[in-house]
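Box 3.1 A note on notation
Throughout this textbook, protein chains are presented in two layers. The first layer is the amino acid sequence; the second is a token string describing backbone geometry. Keep the layers aligned when reading.
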Amino acid sequence: MHYTLKQLKYLDAAARHRSITGAADEFNISPSSIAAAINAMEHEISGTVFVRHPSKGVTPTRYGQGFLRHVHDILEQHSQFEKSLGGVSDRLEGHIRLGCFAPLAPIMLPVVLKSISIRYPTVSIDIAEGDTAEISSMITNGELDLAMGYDQGFATNARFSPLFDAPPHVALNSEHALAGRAMVALEELQDDPLVLLNLEVTRDYILGLFKARGLDPTIVHRSRSSDMVRALVASGLGYAIFNVRPLKKQTYVVGDIVRIPLKSRHETPTFGFLYRDEKKLTRVETALIETCQQLNLDGRFKPLLVAT
């Protein structure tokens, strides 16, 4: 099979951007050059790597997903090979496709990426957000190198590297009758309206907390947006269950929120990194994980948790 490294880079860029135009912009070339590289490679392998959607970009075929995983691995190996020719250096360069559980992305990633930009200014990171199923699928299909999320609901062929445990707490309107309590039991909330974060694994986890105690919560609102759930709680329309909170105090159009730990022991998820089980981590990926581990040791994530 005949191919060039440039062709592989063009295919990898098209996969990351889900767009021929986006890939062309990255290399400052014409879209026709990217399209020609894709066509040449598909002819060479007698297979279809991308489905073209007029005016809507490209998506990898099932065959293409596996093929692009190999392309990405080859480019990573080539990058490491080039570095080895220049001798060992502390300068770290590279690219990471990073996924994150959507409700936590705006809370976690600014801290993480700021630290990475200071330590490794030549490392670039593409970010994808999604619910647990979406992130898990993208890891399995090789569309992401690493993902950050909870250790629940992920594919069995994925490996998990833990960072910290995140026990559940209740978010209440600041004028709620229980707002001044040091701790609250789920039984005390049984008859109150619940605003449910309606992402599949999250929903099952929250309802499982009640089920484990023989309780059946009264759900009044459901939303896939954690921002919307918090806003509804602040306005007094119900309470919510979360595992982490924003690092900075938020303001709301109506009302305010207090966060109170739950009484008794409850199932507690662990937050950390996910990647394919067979994957060998690159130096850049290892550096990202180690940076987060150091941030955790330095207590940077501690304000995310509601202390019991």
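The radius of gyration is 23 Å. The CA atoms of residues 161 and 279 lie 13 Å apart.
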